[in-house]
Amino acid sequence: MNTLLAQDPTLADFGRDPWWLVLIKIVFAFVFGLLATLLGVWFERRVVGYMQVRPGPNQVGPFGLLQTLADGLKMAFKEDILPKAADKVVYFFAPVISVVCAVTALSVIPFGPMVSIFGHRTPLQVTDVPVAVLVLLACSSLAVYGIVLGGWASGSTYPLLGGLRSSAQMISYEVAMGLSIVAVFMTAGTMSTSGIVAAQGDATRLTIGGVEIPAPGWYAILLLPSFIIFFIATVGETNRAPFDLPEAESELVAGFMTEYSSLKFALFMLSEYVAMVTMSAVTTTLFLGGWRAPWPITLWGDANTGWWPMLWFFGKVLMLVFVFVWLRGTLPRLRYDQFMRFGWKVLLPINLVWILVLSGLRSIEDWQSRDRLLATAIGAGVLLLATLLWPSRKPAPKPTPQEQADNRPYGSFPLPPLDLQVPPSPRTKRVVAEREPANIATGSDSREV
């Protein structure tokens, strides 16, 4: 364990790199976000195609890998249409804001431990600060400005409605996301992303039936309710299905990006997929141990040293991206009232109760890690069972037409019968009358007309 802890970067390890090494890290983070977007679009289309029993992209390049690149080039060279009523400056900068906020969040994500690059010992992370998680929340919150300003600057009604929906959606689920991270702060004792990963490095020991079983100290296990709520909130934050209300084609044409075309539309699409990859990386850092290897691989002594941790980190991110795609391929889009009710009346109360319970448990003296794991598992199970077994409110039976007529307010107009048949139009009567002699001559029935 001492060998592994020696690889953990601390805040003192940042700010000492030469300028060229910092530039390499920045370029790596940007290229990672760009390549993850290109591969993410291909990955989503292939996985959804497999779920729907169709091939998906398989013509351009090996396994269709170059299809996304071809689509991006096609978007870039298409005609750029600018609406007459649009605010040109804001209309241009809105998609740029979304992309910059999504990429900036990658600067505080730890991709690995301390490594040697051209003879310099440096952490595989662009930078880290004592409040790095607040930087992630700020980038996630600022991303809504690109959507809102894009809808407003288009000078059209439907994009404006889509932007307003997105602002209300992100504000609602930002509260649940922030409260989920509070539990991580309480357990790790730090807001530094590298410190949170280091806090999840100590394995816990769970005794079941007298047998001691090693278990990872991931907060996805120790803080299971926070992990579930946080991931649901990330799906709502990134406007992904089933929470893609700002892009509800059946209601708002194409949402906030209706009036966008060419490269600006491609930037909005890029920001969505970069945000999906970024939030998967944030979830991995906060709840899945970051770059640390899962339990079976930790039996190998060098699993968390050198460049190997980057492989474990990318594997966890890919797993979460698959869950994003899985949700899109299986769940239908929610109604707006269902979406907002779920955020304010379900996620928020459960999160508040869980933080209260966690605060009470942490105040107990001699609080051992195995007891914490066992109590958390029991508490999460009881909470989930209570949520599933809670009696649902049955809708009141619909009154019969006679009851509606008897209970109507005094002085109101009587209700027409529900089986009222619409009388035929005068034109239909005239056509039937004109064809009546011919029907009599041929022996056919006029009701067949």
UniProtKB/TrEMBL annotation:
Q: Where is this region: Disordered?
A: 394-449
Query: What is the recorded membrane topology of this protein?
Result: Multi-pass membrane protein
Q: What is its EC number?
A: 7.1.1.-
Molecular function via GO? NADH dehydrogenase activity; oxidoreductase activity, acting on NAD(P)H, quinone or similar compound as acceptor; quinone binding
Specify the domain of life of the species encoding this protein.
Bacteria
Using the UniProt record, name the top-level EC class of this enzyme in a single word.
Answer: translocase
InterPro entries registered for this protein in UniProt = NADH_UbQ_OxRdtase_su1/FPO (IPR001694), NADH_UbQ_OxRdtase_su1_CS (IPR018086)
Q: Which GO biological process annotations does it have?
A: aerobic respiration
Q: Where in the cell is it found?
A: Cell membrane; Membrane
What UniProt keywords are attached to this protein's entry?
A: Cell membrane, Membrane, NAD, Quinone, Translocase, Transmembrane, Transmembrane helix, Ubiquinone
Q: How does it assemble?
A: NDH-1 is composed of 14 different subunits. Subunits NuoA, H, J, K, L, M, N constitute the membrane sector of the complex.
Family from the record: Belongs to the complex I subunit 1 family.
State the NCBIfam families in the record: PRK06076.1-2 (NF004741), PRK06076.1-4 (NF004743)
Q: What is this protein called?
A: NADH-quinone oxidoreductase subunit H
**Which source organism does the UniProt entry give?**
Micromonospora wenchangensis
Q: What is the lineage of its organism?
A: Bacteria, Bacillati, Actinomycetota, Actinomycetes, Micromonosporales
